Amino acid sequence: MGYPKEILIFRHAEKPADSKNENLSTKGYERAAALAYYLPDAFGTIDHLFAAGVGIKSPSKRPIETITPLATRLDKKIHEKFLKYEYKDMVTHIFKDEKYTDSVIAIAWQHTDIEDIANTFGTQDVPTTPWPGDCFDLVWKLTYNGDKTYTLDQIPQLLMYGDTDDIIVDPVTKTFCQELQTIDPRVLFSSHMPTPAGNFPNQAMTCVFQVPKVNVPEGLEEQFIFVGASFLLSETAIINNQIAAVLNVATEVNDAKDLQIPFSDPQVDKRAALPFELAANETYYLNQLNKVGLTDDNENDMMSLVAAVLEAEQLLNAPSPTQQKAAGAVDFYAQGNLVIHSHEGGSRAVTVTALYLYYKYYIQTDVSFVDVYKSIICLRWNKTINNHPTQGICENAYKVLNTFEALFPKPVRKA
Q: Are 113 and 204 within one domain?
């Protein structure tokens, strides 16, 4: 295994005011030039250089531009094949290659991933407070402890006018979103763990809610909402859980694991027979599909969460095939249960589900969004694979809550 003795992680240098410009600003280029001298002088020999690459959903050139002057001065290659969201693959690559053993590595990356990169390396006592959006002047030094863990030192660069000696620390009192990063959700409910609604298999998805009878669309006797893990979805899971609608809230990357959705085979899935014969120009689909791109960080557009909630409403309230035919449709969709999922079934899927349930059923009751969120987290944690919801996506949900009157028309907001 290749365990570097030191890893230097720093955010790319300053960016321009124009958000469409993926290059550095003038001050950013000045910082990049200064780093070429500062890093070797402050930390000694640097053996390997990494930077977030440019590609699909990773358009920024800033990490590469930030480390390029250092690469030129040291006459070293920049490893840039790993895109912004592929930092786990980068860490795996480093650990698997003996050439990185006892070396010093410098990594330039986007600030939203630095905490996760440090954690992936096995670093102890990493702050959960997000890296500030205006902080470009800090280096995180990870020092190997010899036991597959690293110790973190935060070192202010103090290179340019306006640089400070501030470091990132966690507040004494944590918000609900911050607590979710470290707490085992089972302790939230102790011996009173929520139990899934219905009697469904829980291998790929967890039933988190039964739609009240008054809200079940015409054509159905009952309806359920699931939270699931996309990498576990299969035709069997779709059929066994009577899923007729799938909302994928995984990140929008051209990745087979992310984009592939199983379709039930009408020759195998006999759960929903049409009440009429299909004409030659008509088709019956057993699944409705929708997708919203949400990332596990705090840079999501709030309106993406709004769109996801509205799409959940649309999928759950699909008219019956008979109603579809009466409206002149020739492509018919089944009614049934909804699964909201992301790759591992946590964070994004849990947040969207909690937001939908809160707006639809609890907005005018004493039940808080926090309680709804806790319940779904505990269900997922207790029944199947799940990760802690990320602080960023949780904070996005609270931003949506603060403006729901303007964003959510009826019928999502309960009258």
A: no
Domain contains 177: no
Taking the CA of residue 320 as centre, how many other CA atoms within 13 Å lie in the half-sphere pointing to its CB?
14
Q: Which domain holds residue 165?
A: 6-170
Query: Does residue 181 lie within any of the structural domains?
Result: no
Please give, one letter per residue, the 3-state secondary structure of the chain: CCCCCEEEEEECCCCCCCCCCCCCCHHHHHHHHHHHHHHHHHHCCCCEEEECECECCECCCHHHHHHHHHHHHHCCCEECCCEHHHHHHHHHHHHHCHHHCCCEEEEEECHHHHHHHHHHCCEECCCCCCCCCCCCCEEEEEEECCCCCEEEEEEECCCCCCCCCCCCCCCCCCCHHHHCCCCCCHHHHCCCCCCCCCCCCCCCEEEEEECCHHHCCCCCCCCEEEEEEHHHCCHHHHHHCCEEEEEECCCCCCCHHHHCCCCCCCCCCCCCCCCCCCCCCCEEECCEEEECCCCCCCCCCHHHHHHHHHHHHHHHCCCCHHHHHHCCCCEEECCCEEEEEECCCCCHHHHHHHHHHHHHHHCCCCCCHHHHHHHHHHHHHHHCCCCCCCHHHHHHHHHHHHCHHHHCCCCCCCC
Which tens digit of pLDDT belongs to each residue from 314-327? 999 999 999 999 99
The total number of structural domains in the chain stands at: 2
Q: Are 329 and 392 in the same domain?
A: yes
Instruction: Locate 299 and state its tokens.
Output: 């840079």
Residues 147 and 264 in one domain: no
265 shares a domain with 225: yes
Spatial distance between the Cα atoms of 154 and 414, rounded to a whole number of angstroms? 48
pLDDT tens sequence across 264-305: 777 788 776 788 888 999 988 888 888 888 887 777 888 889
Same domain, residue pair 201 and 122: no
Residues 177-233: tens digit of each pLDDT? 888 877 777 777 766 777 888 888 877 889 999 999 999 999 999 999 999 888 788
164 and 280 in a single domain? The answer is: no
Q: What percentage of the chain reaches a pLDDT higher than 70?
A: 94
Based on the fold, state whether residues 296 and 210 are members of the same structural domain.
yes
Q: Is residue 178 part of a domain?
A: no
Question: In CATH, what number is assigned to the domain containing residue 252?
Answer: 3.90.190.10
Query: For the domain that residue 95 is a member of, what is the CATH number?
Result: 3.40.50.1240
127 lies in the same domain as 194 = no
